[in-house]
Amino acid sequence: MEKEGRIGVTTENIFPIIKKFLYSDHEIFLREVISNAVDATQKLKTLADKGEFKGELGDLSIRVSIDKKAKTLTISDRGIGMTAEELDKYINQIALSSANEFLDKYKDSANAIIGHFGLGFYSTFMVSKKVEIITKSYKEDAPAIKWSCEGTPDYKIEEAEKKDRGTDVILYIDDENKEFLEKEKIESLLKKYCRFLPIPIVFGKKQEWKDGKYVETDEDNIINNTNPLWKRKPSELKDEDYLNFYHELYPMTFDEPLFWIHLNVDYPFHLTGILYFPRIKSNLDLQKNKIQLYCNQVFVTDSVEGIVPEFLTLLHGVIDSPDIPLNVSRSYLQSDKNVKKISNHITKKVADKLEEIFKKDRSQFEEKWEGLKLFIQYGMLTEEKFYERAVKFCLLKNIDGKYFTLEEYKTLIESNQTDKNGTLVYLYATNKDDQYAFIDAAKEKGYDVLLMDGQLDIPWMGLIEHKFEKTRFVRVDSDTVEHLIEKEETAKVELSDKEKEALSEIVKSQLPKMDKTEFVVEFKALGETGKPIQITQDEFARRMKDMSAIQPGMSFYGEMPDIYQVVVNTQHPLIKEIVSETAGKEKEELIPYASENKKLKQMIDLALLSNNMLKGEALSDFIKRSIDMM
User: Fold this and answer.
1) What's the CATH superfamily of 497-538+557-629?
2) H-helix segments, 419-456
3) Which of 114, 250, 342, 567 could form a disulfide with 329 if both were Cys (CB 3.0 to 4.6 A apart)?
4) pLDDT tens string 413-460
5) Which CATH architecture is the domain 2-210 placed in?
6) pLDDT tens readout for residues 472-494
């Protein structure tokens, strides 16, 4: 038997198109051919299970081999094989209605081409100048067939010699793609795409260290784990198994995961997998692209934004589902209702797991909070369904290291931290040391102070203020302690406009000159025992500036100067003394007076010191002056 013909396309340009448009993704050819071999092997096993194949299955391994001399890469299986009619049907008939439609629709979308037109096998021509298929069907008396094509629509089918059933795909690698004749390259691709396939993939022989070098043994080098952990029953597994698998997936990760979720869904879609909660520290972007997506144990991608919500991309692990619609290149997800269902299910399972740990072992949850906080806040900010669940177990930590749910904390502070307008005020610090003086002052008033030093704390606080009525977060250094939570009408400043103008001139003259920093003098009546001068920073302006560092589109806030309020307590005896001493002085007399007034300098430096703003020479001068004044 011998047959020649033309592949069922309406143009001779199919192969140049494949080479041109798929070149950027050319390594997937190996995955496609091996996936076909796995399918053929799985079909044979199914036929054997049904009794339709009565022969010996024998060794079902798929073998990959390189012949550098012949410049060939061969993939061989002992699966179902093909008859001449099947080969003609599955290989020669490509569903292309017209070359013009093809080019117009897919000229800018290389990755859609293969899948849309069923060109998985033809991806081999991205790297080959010639491809041969030698196949023999499992059916009795079916002859072996050889198909060959040199990258044109012309092909040749003839009878061949092949003793065993199955298929050999022989690729004659072209000169532009010699890298695919290198053992290291092929081994890396097999480990990337095929490491968990259900059929053993053999590539060469195992090596052992002998007499100072590696030598080949007689044992086959099987590169894949055919029964990965996510395909096994959770009841069969121990914590050690999950930890070992985590390090198998991420060999360069030395931290242990916080915990994990084993997914196993049969209805209304099929989904298996294991998701790990890593110890997330700070940088969001470095943690992404760690979830590996598989389709029937074939690696698809580690860019899973289309299949899981944005915040879940911080997790690590594996998702495997045959119900996620993919094109044959298996690299780009196509949105449909199944994707949304799977996404919602994963979100629910993650929330279930977190709530379960919180309820069963609160102390364990608190111990792991620092590793979970970023993840949970990210989820609450970006996914409404997750917010609705997480609001019950999201924790707040105060500066004493105690943890509270939002409801618990509200109960704790509402009697003492509700202002005159009925707004509940959450006081917080971002640095216990830098803001110590303000924290201490707040605690003396009986207030509780939260520690909010996380990467997403600023936008998260904005979310809670939006969700909770009459709630606001205020940093302890954003105002004087007397005005952080106003409970009654404040005392009036009893200074004339002229006295305010003079006092402002005096104070401003002694403030330091700092880059991108402005000082605004304010007057408040804080009582005789209140501090004479304090420096605060407006909550809104500072928060907007902080947001600009993490949120695109707000960069203009980042260019604005830091604005500090220099609050002068008009009721303090030292301030009254200055007002009295400068009464009647002309404007040009005020600056010399201020320069010689050590008490004024001391008050301003103490305010700067409380804000960690007194450094270098200014700090040295302050110390010398303090000694002189004692």
Assistant:
1) Heat shock protein 90, C-terminal domain (1.20.120.790)
2) 436-444
3) 114
4) 999 999 999 999 999 999 999 999 999 999 999 999 999 998 899 999
5) 2-Layer Sandwich (3.30)
6) 999 999 998 988 998 887 788 88
